[in-house]
Write a structure and sequence with these properties.
It contains twelve helices and twelve strands. The mean pLDDT is about 90. Helix content is about 45%, strand content about 20%. The strands form four sheets. Strands 4-3-5-12-6 form a five-stranded mixed β-sheet, sandwiched between helices. A three-stranded antiparallel β-sheet has the order 10-7-11, with no helix packed on it. The chain has a two-stranded antiparallel sheet with strand order 1-2. By secondary structure, it is α/β, with parallel strands linked by helices. The protein is elongated and about 75 Å long.
Length: about 300
């Protein structure tokens, strides 16, 4: 059995198409198909359901795929450990990040790259479900996500910060001069929010409901950048996580106002697969995360926009 055969199988399961899998592996389709047939012969099992097109894996194939992910992850971990002995950590850290945490990812990736100049980072914006899959299938080394996700299994959790929710509202608007506003007051404004598929939106909808209100935004976005793109101009208000101020700040002509309610929302943190030994790249990121002071950095940025008060 060759590692290349396992790589082809992983690519086929991911792409669900022989030609696309072959292109992803930079080989011809006949070469990929022949390699997987050799793997079936060596293991004496049928791995792929074959028809006129790719139809998925057999039950035995699913078992082989799980082992393929594990073996290739162990191969990568070995290469990473050897790179340290050769003079410095190298390789590419695969980091998945929920969209609402992307604005603060640089607080980890920048110091990671400064500490390990021979290593790189591949950053992916992923849903919570995609993160769970990526960690389980060894397609991610680490992820930044909500730590209260009970569907995360066999992971180690490292808290980074707790979301704090703020109202961004135009100067001159009805709530611009308030020291603090209620969720019900915010719900009455013309709003631009993330859409309901986003975890952050579902959380703030619960906050609105707890104050007896329902948000009815005129504009919804599936990204923080898309939301911020609509705020300048003095028409829309929005409820944001304080973490977004790290990248986007307060748009001109707007003011940030604290919302009444819990001082802190859900925890956001770093998660890695709970395997031994811990892959070197993942452990290196954990070390950076423990020293980065993400919570303090975000709180300082918030205080600067609140004029020293929170």
């Amino acid at each position: 059995m060759l590692l290349r055969q396992l790589e082809y199988l992983v690519a086929l399961a991911r792409e669900r198409h022989f030609a696309r899998a072959a292109a992803a592996c930079f080989v011809s389709q006949p070469s990929l198909s022949a390699a997987i047939r050799r793997l079936e012969h060596e293991l004496d099992v049928s791995i792929v359901r074959r028809g006129q097109r790719y139809e998925g894996l057999t039950p035995e194939g699913e078992v082989v795929l799980a082992w393929a992910h594990r073996i290739l992850a162990e191969r990568d971990a070995l290469q990473q450990e050897l790179s340290v002995l050769r003079g410095g950590l190298s390789g590419t850290l695969r980091l998945g990040v929920v969209p609402t945490a992307l604005p603060v990812a640089s607080l980890l990736t920048n110091p990671f790259c400064e500490r390990h100049p021979r290593a790189g980072v591949t950053l992916q914006s992923l849903s919570s479900e995609q993160i769970r899959h990526g960690l389980a299938e060894f397609e991610l080394d680490a992820a930044m996500t909500y730590l209260d996700d009970d569907t995360l299994r066999q992971v180690r959790r490292f808290p980074l910060y707790e979301e704090r929710y703020m109202l961004l509202t135009p100067l001159g608007g009805p709530l611009a001069d308030a020291e603090r506003v209620s969720w019900a007051q915010a719900a009455a404004l013309p709003l631009c929010l993330l859409n309901s598929r986003m975890r952050n939106r579902r959380i703030i909808d619960d906050c609105f409901a707890a104050d007896g209100a329902t948000a009815d935004p005129a504009i919804e976005s599936d990204s923080v950048a898309g939301l911020y793109a609509h705020l300048p101009g003095g028409r829309w208000s929005s409820v944001i996580s304080h973490a977004w101020l790290h990248m986007f700040g307060v748009p001109g002509g707007m003011r940030v106002v604290p919302l009444e309610g819990p001082a802190h929302g859900p925890r956001v943190g770093l998660v890695i697969a709970h395997i031994e030994p811990t892959p070197v790249l993942a452990q290196a990121l954990v070390t950076v995360a423990r020293e980065a002071g993400v919570r303090d950095a975000l709180d300082r940025r918030l205080r600067s926009h609140l004029g020293g008060h929170d």
